Amino acid sequence: MAPVPVSPISVGHIDDVQELRKTIPSRIPQRFVRDGIERPRLFMTNPTPCKNIPVIDLSNLQKGSKDEFRAELLQLSASCEDWGFFQVINHGVNLSLVESLEKVAMEFFMLPLEEKQKYPMLPGTVQGYGQAFVFSEDQKLDWCNMFALGLEPHFIRNPNLWPTKPATFSETLEAYSREIRKLCKNLLKYIAIGLSLDENVFEDMFGAAVQAVRMNYYPACPRPDLVLGLSPHSDGSALTVLQQGKGSSVGLQIFKDNTWVPVQPIPNALVINIGDTIEVLTNGRYKSVEHRAVTHREKDRLSIVTFYAPSYDLEVGPMPELVDENEPCKYRRYNHGEYSKNYVTNKLRGKKALEFAKINTTN
Ligand SMILES: O=C(O)CCC(=O)C(=O)O
Ligand SMILES: [Fe+2]
């Protein structure tokens, strides 16, 4: 008898959160219920005054006066250093494209489960529909459905992706991804200038940059105080671009000064965050900040996230210009492909992924 292939990863049964909502709307299976300290504290009686993440106006960098340019560049550098997050306005990404992508993404999530499961996210992979980063039966699950696609190094049109809607879905995603790519290149140029580096340093270094997109759909949850939409993590990318669905609930939170700060969406803005790769390249000057998503009792939420990263061949390590006696080298050199593999073969675990690269300085 031929041996039955056994997957080395046993993840147990994973409930689809949208189906749970339909069948038993009030039930939250135990696998979604977080332990006490992990639970989001959503109903604080006296919340700390809300700090908002900085806003960058790209048009000031692209066509502002000298003074506007200088002020915006300072604001960009400070955002990357102090927050690792900012919202960008006047970003140049076609807004009707943004809306169209949101529409096709929602159409996808509203398909019957059997349709969506034609592109299953297999255990240990981060592509397709389902839950990513699940590696064991006792791991808590996120209140989220994901649809993730790699678009590397350039978007490859795949007619099998969504057979009933190949044209709209593929074309919209392709056009959107091209614009997001342009935005990332632009932002990296200004980030380099702000660090007093050559403006092309990242583009030249990154080679054929890898781009991946993840659509996260968070259905409303009857007990948002018990679950997380997405576990705390930092992104393995160089830069991440996040678009929140129009009318979505506030869901993204970033970990700043020991508290979880909600990101209040600004209409037509995109949220940008520094990923682990830029943290390493800048020797820790720019931070890849831990973030998570929470759910809402009545409202659902969609986020569309693009990860922009160097070619897998790149050897990554702190840039010599950012290492000196005051800022000794904090990370070792490593191959970016290996880093990515390590990232996707572990569960999301705060900033732990970066330990792969950290040099232990115990003095
Ligand atoms: O949905 C969100 O706001 C967070 C998404 C995110 O952090 C991710 O997909 O990496
Ligand atoms: Fe993220």
UniProtKB/TrEMBL annotation:
Q: Where is the Fe2OG dioxygenase domain?
A: 209-310
Q: Name one Pfam family in it.
A: DIOX_N
Output one GO MF annotation: metal ion binding
GO BP terms: coumarin biosynthetic process; response to molecule of fungal origin
Keywords, ordered alphabetically: Iron, Metal-binding, Oxidoreductase
**What does the sequence similarity comment in the record state about its family?**
Belongs to the iron/ascorbate-dependent oxidoreductase family.
- Protein's name according to its UniProt entry: Fe2OG dioxygenase domain-containing protein
Which organism is this entry from?
Answer: Coffea canephora
